[in-house]
Write a structure and sequence with these properties.
Elements (H helix, E strand, L loop, with lengths): L4 H12 L4 H14 L9 H10 L1 H7 L5 H14 L2 H7 L3 H9 L2
Helix pairs in contact: 1-2, 1-5, 3-5, 4-5
């Protein structure tokens, strides 16, 4: 199973908070959908916007202590994983069709 940027972010959220795996993934999925984004095609800038604008409120609503610091810690972990950037863009349908078509 391929690891997406969403998977990495959810795992980092679980590690940085008191949430279990299901709660971390569900909370992140709701925030991403609220932003009008697709979990399978997230980019780091999109994910950063979600963690800056939406996740603090979502985490506070779920009783996570120091939600802002948790969001910063998750984004720092993701940013340090440089390979995550390749996961989000290189396998999008548009990129795959461009490679297949030779464009």
């Amino acid at each position: 199973m391929a690891t997406t940027l969403f998977d990495i972010a959810a795992e980092k959220l679980e590690e940085s908070s008191e949430m279990d795996q299901l709660e971390a993934r569900g909370t992140l999925r709701l925030a991403v959908k609220e932003a009008g984004l697709d979990v399978q095609n997230l980019t780091i800038p999109q994910l950063q916007a979600v963690f800056e604008k939406l996740m603090p409120k979502e985490l506070e609503a779920r009783g996570v202590s120091d939600a802002a610091a948790t969001c910063k810690a998750v984004m720092k972990d993701i940013a340090s994983a440089a390979s995550a950037a390749d996961l989000s863009a290189s396998n999008s349908p548009d990129e795959i069709f461009k490679r297949l078509g030779g464009s």
